[in-house]
């Protein structure tokens, strides 16, 4: 009996600042273990990494960032302190942020990475705080629409496991997630930006990582994105599992094929 094929995007976040992460991701892409990466442009960007990435043609998205490192604009705004470092506020402290400031910072990050000769494949965000404030997430949807880029939407197809993980990770009640999910759905309808049908978030408990991934994929629809962070020994362990024959066999048996964000273009 034939199996209906389902598409899986495997994306490595936090590409760029760390040579360890960047080289590890490049090797994984060359080995056909991952689909793409998401680059942080405002923290210790390594030009050698850019050249290497361009040489091998690794698909790259922008990991928009307003919580870590310095602003790319280097001017006073509601996002930064006196030294132009992002204020790194928590989920309950976004009222100080001016939407115009966020738009200009995010657009500048997009333009900076495009100026390096990189053809962006998608947009997503560093840290998920922005997903819990609709007026800020509207900025991301607007930019994705203006630059005709697919966008990671973590609320799309959110499962019970994903809900529990978000509640635990961000110390927020489930009803707040449900409220924001409805708001983001409305924003998505307005901008008509393409997104994967489900987003599988990363976890940092390697003792359950294999079973977590398999369970998530068993419940997932066609065109799902799996996000993975590969820094340090924990990250290496996760990447090793994704590259393992055990995981590849699970994908094959269940009809999964690894694709890139270009399938949404």
From TrEMBL:
* Source species, domain of life: Bacteria
Cofactor(s) needed:
Mg(2+)
The record's section on InterPro entries has: Glyco_hydro/deAcase_b/a-brl, YdjC-like
Q: Which Gene Ontology molecular-function terms are recorded? A: deacetylase activity; hydrolase activity; metal ion binding
Annotated GO biological processes are:
carbohydrate metabolic process
Question: Does the record bear Metal-binding in its keywords?
Answer: yes
Alphabetical keyword list: Carbohydrate metabolism, Hydrolase, Magnesium, Metal-binding
Enumerate the Gene3D superfamilies for this protein: Glycoside hydrolase/deacetylase
Q: Which PANTHER family match?
A: CARBOHYDRATE DEACETYLASE (PTHR31609:SF1), YDJC DEACETYLASE FAMILY MEMBER (PTHR31609)
The molecule here is called YdjC-like protein
The species is Pseudobacteriovorax antillogorgiicola
């Amino acid at each position: 009996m034939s199996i209906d094929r389902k598409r899986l995007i495997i994306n490595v976040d936090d590409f760029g600042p760390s040579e360890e992460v960047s080289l590890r991701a490049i090797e994984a892409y060359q080995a056909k273990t991952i689909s793409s990466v998401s680059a942080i442009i405002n923290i210790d960007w390594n030009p050698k990494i850019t050249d290497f990435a361009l040489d091998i043609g690794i698909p790259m998205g922008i990991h928009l960032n307003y919580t870590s490192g310095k602003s790319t604009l280097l001017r006073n705004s509601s996002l930064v302190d006196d030294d132009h470092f992002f204020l790194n506020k928590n989920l309950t402290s976004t009222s100080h942020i001016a939407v115009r400031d966020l738009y200009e910072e995010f657009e500048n990050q997009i333009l900076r990475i495009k100026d390096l000769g990189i053809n962006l494949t998608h947009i997503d965000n560093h840290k998920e705080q922005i997903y819990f404030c609709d007026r800020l997430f509207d900025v991301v949807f607007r930019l994705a629409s203006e630059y005709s880029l697919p966008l990671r939407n973590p609320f799309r197809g959110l499962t019970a496991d994903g809900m529990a993980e978000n509640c635990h990770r961000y110390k927020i009640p489930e009803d707040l997630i449900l409220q924001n999910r409805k708001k983001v759905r409305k924003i998505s309808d307005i901008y008509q930006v393409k997104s994967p049908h489900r987003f599988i978030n990363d976890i940092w408990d390697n003792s359950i990582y294999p079973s977590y991934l398999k369970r998530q994929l068993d419940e997932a629809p066609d065109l799902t994105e799996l996000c993975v962070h590969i820094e340090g020994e924990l990250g290496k362990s996760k990447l090793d599992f994704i590259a393992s024959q055990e995981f590849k066999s699970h994908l094959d048996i269940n009809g999964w094929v690894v694709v890139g964000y270009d399938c949404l273009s």
